[in-house]
Hints:
This protein is α/β, with parallel strands linked by helices. It has 3 helices and 7 strands; from the N terminus they run αββββαβαββ. Helix content is 35%, strand content 19%. The strands form 2 sheets. It has a 5-stranded mixed sheet with strand order 4-3-2-5-6, with helices on one face. A two-stranded parallel ribbon has the order 1-7. The termini are far apart.
Amino acid sequence: MALSQRNKISINFSSVGMTDVVFNLLIFFMLTSTLVHPSAIKLLLPKGSTQTSAKPQTSVSITSDLNYYVEQQPVAFEQLEDILKQKLGSAPDTYIAVHADKSVPFENVVKVLDIAQRNNYKLIIATSPK
């Protein structure tokens, strides 16, 4: 009576599961990297501890050498109001984030505040965490 072994151990390696995991990680990192909007303008923001839940429609940046940017585009201060009107229109509850270097004189931030007040925009002043 010959006895045969019924359970044979397979030596083959299946990489299907590993491929699925790597593919899912690749998709996850591709999607999350498109959600991050790094600022290419180097600013040293003042420190603050409060946060707001409002989402700004655009941002105005003021560098330490008093150059103005709407998002990433350099703008002369004289054209700032016109560009904001073109970009935002007159929609209610329009928020603008102001990223001003902490060495910028407050007078320059107030100028942007005046533009926002004339056009009924709401400002969010960006700070870095304490």
